[in-house]
């Protein structure tokens, strides 16, 4: 499973931070940060989701009010926009 985070879309509500510890707050920028994320496109960060964190990652994506977090399965199919 893979997570992608669109930093430009993020509005800093930090709901993802409460759901998964892979996200942290960058209060100076007013945005969340995907820890360990690699920038794959301008402003888009991605990383693999460990098996034990899959449920937390899904909750983080579902709670984002602006859909800045997407979850993909191992085949590249988007599970959560």
Automatic annotation (TrEMBL):
Q: Which domain of life is it from?
A: Archaea
Q: Please verify whether the record's keywords include NAD.
A: no
Keywords for this entry? Electron transport, Iron, Iron-sulfur, Metal-binding, Transport
As one GO molecular function, the record gives: iron-sulfur cluster binding
Q: Does the keyword Iron apply?
A: yes
UniProt cross-references to SUPFAM superfamilies, sorted A to Z:
4Fe-4S ferredoxins
Q: What is this protein called?
A: Ferredoxin
Q: Which organism is it from?
A: Saliphagus infecundisoli
């Amino acid at each position: 499973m893979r997570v992608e985070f669109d930093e430009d879309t993020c509005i800093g509500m930090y709901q993802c931070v409460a759901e998964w510890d892979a996200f942290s707050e960058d209060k100076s920028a007013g945005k969340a940060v995907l820890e360990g994320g690699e920038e794959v496109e301008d402003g888009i960060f991605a990383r693999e989701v460990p098996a034990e964190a899959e449920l937390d990652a899904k909750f983080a994506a579902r709670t984002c009010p602006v859909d800045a977090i997407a979850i993909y399965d191992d085949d590249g199919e988007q599970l959560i926009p």
